[in-house]
Amino acid sequence: MLQSFRFLNVCAVALLIASCAINAPTFPAGEVCETPSFSVIDSFSGARRGTCTVLSDDHVRLDILPESSGKINDSPWYAFKLSSNSPMTAKISLRYHGGHHRYWPKVSNDGLRWTRLGSQHVVSSANGRRAEFDVDLTGEPVWVAAQELITPTIYEAWYRKTAKLADMPVMVLGDSTAGLPIHVFDNNAASKEVLFLVGRQHPPEVSGAFAFFAFTETVLGDSDLAQRFRDRFRIIAIPLLNPDGVIGGNWRNNLGGVDLNRDWGLFTQPETQLMAELLENLDKGDSKIRMFLDFHSTKENVFYALPDVTHPPDFIATWLEAARPRITGYPFELTQGPATSMAIAKNYIYERYGIPAATFEVGDETDRGIARAAAKVFAEELMQLMLDQEY
Ligand SMILES: [Zn+2]
Q: What is the pTM of this model?
């Protein structure tokens, strides 16, 4: 992906004579960035553009910064909208602060349907600190983002669709730091055996959200297997634990500046406190979580789990190997290792209950249709395996 990189714009040359930087108009984050031929807008849910510097009529530089100072996970999110009155090609330079170019730019004409920007358009510097690409504008707005914009509004639409599919309402578990609702699907409170699913602790991890959607649609679906599964098991599915972070276009944290997946057990944040209360209530009701899955994204498709799950033994490996022959085009690994931090959700759940718990990681650029198809198979095989257990 990395290619040699050259800034061949007028301003870079002009910098040599120390004039352009002084005169280049700059627009702080939140202010529409106007060039003579197009504008760059960041006033929408999920946007992150940073300071915009106009380098020429058709060229801007965006300084992409994380939501917090200090060390942060290297997942630089960007999202902005381009607008021009007439057909043109806009040149965008991204300059990353505190991270490296990671997400291939995606574009959309309506903010809903996305395509990857053509490879001929994108170059990044060898050290990953800069990226540059062209976007063709035809007079209509174009959204550009690190990943598809799967914001709380999109989740709301998915809740409605899934509630209809599953013939059950989505409920509100509680509020985020900003007071936004955190939703849950919960099918069968009478059952003492629980499948627990969590999504989107980390805002940019959109490929994991696609897997979460397909997985949850499968376990809440109307297949015979899913119906038998729900006759026995309670499903608690929390699709979006960090809505504030998603809306803010955060790289990693919630509104309180905390990585929620380093806060389990500590439970310092409103979002994780909801998890603590939920677990407490399950314990009080003598319920047993049988399986815990936390959906994320990373560079590859991988499942992270603990090495020595005791009850039942080898459950996760058995599950994944049952799914493997049915899955094509989705290479994946199971990485089992000792817990590096107790405050990661899967580690905390494992330590507290000794049950199978895994982080379901989908590759950043994994084909979304293939990720969805794989997640469906993983869900089917998990339901079958859990039904086979006597515990
Ligand atoms: Zn993550």
A: 0.93
